[in-house]
């Protein structure tokens, strides 16, 4: 649990300034309404302008959703949530392997995601959308 929280915090820190420059927000552990009755709490999201007084962030406001994979939730994050997020129209999905820091970036195509890249520690993830940032996976690990 502490490892996942560290990864989430480091990732949020890396995304904060680029998100601000793009007029976006980076939030950890918020309710995201995908449809009525389906409200997961992803590890991290990048959103457009939102009402911070609302209980839920609407899926239409989410530009990127991130889940940190742990052994107990791997199949949920890789299959179930991936399907739900794509169906809700969220463009980008970032999966972080907690064990080794590998980043899997997916982009929505129709009703599903297509893997764009896999970035392992020692390599660089270069995002141009929804924010411009370069992430070193090893810097996310405790």
Task: Explain the overall architecture.
It is a single chain. Helix content is 24%, strand content 33%. It is an alpha+beta fold and 142 residues long. A 6-stranded mixed beta sheet has the order 1-3-5-6-7-8, sandwiched between helices. A two-stranded parallel ribbon has the order 2-4. The longest helix has 20 residues, at 2-21.
Please sum up the structure shown.
The protein is built from two helices and ten strands. The mean pLDDT is 94. Helix content is 24%, strand content 33%.
Question: Any descriptors?
Answer:
142 residues, alpha+beta, 2 helices, 24% helix, 33% strand
Strand order of the largest sheet: 1-3-5-6-7-8
Shape: globular
How many β-strand runs?
10
Helix-and-strand structural type: alpha+beta
What profile does the largest beta sheet have?
A: 6 strands, mixed
Arithmetic mean of pLDDT: 94
- What proportion strand? 25-35%
What is the topological layout?
Elements: H1 2-21, E1 25-28, E2 32-33, E3 44-47, E4 57-58, E5 62-69, H2 74-87, E6 92-97, E7 103-109, E8 112-119, E9 125-127, E10 133-135
Parallel strand pairs: 2-4, 5-6
Antiparallel strand pairs: 1-3, 3-5, 6-7, 7-8, 9-10
């Amino acid at each position: 649990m502490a490892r996942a929280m560290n990864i989430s915090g480091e990732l949020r820190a890396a995304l904060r300034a680029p998100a601000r420059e793009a007029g976006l927000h980076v939030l950890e552990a918020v309710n995201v309404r995908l449809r009525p009755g389906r409200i997961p709490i992803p590890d991290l999201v990048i959103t457009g302008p939102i009402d911070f007084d609302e209980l839920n962030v609407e899926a239409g406001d989410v530009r990127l959703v991130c889940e940190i994979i742990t052994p107990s939730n791997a199949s949920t994050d890789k299959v179930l949530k991936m399907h739900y997020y794509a169906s809700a129209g969220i463009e980008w999905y970032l999966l972080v392997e907690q064990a080794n820091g590998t980043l899997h970036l997916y982009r929505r195509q129709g009703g599903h995601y297509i893997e764009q890249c896999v970035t392992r520690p020692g390599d660089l993830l270069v995002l141009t959308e929804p924010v411009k940032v370069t992430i070193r996976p090893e810097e996310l690990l405790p």
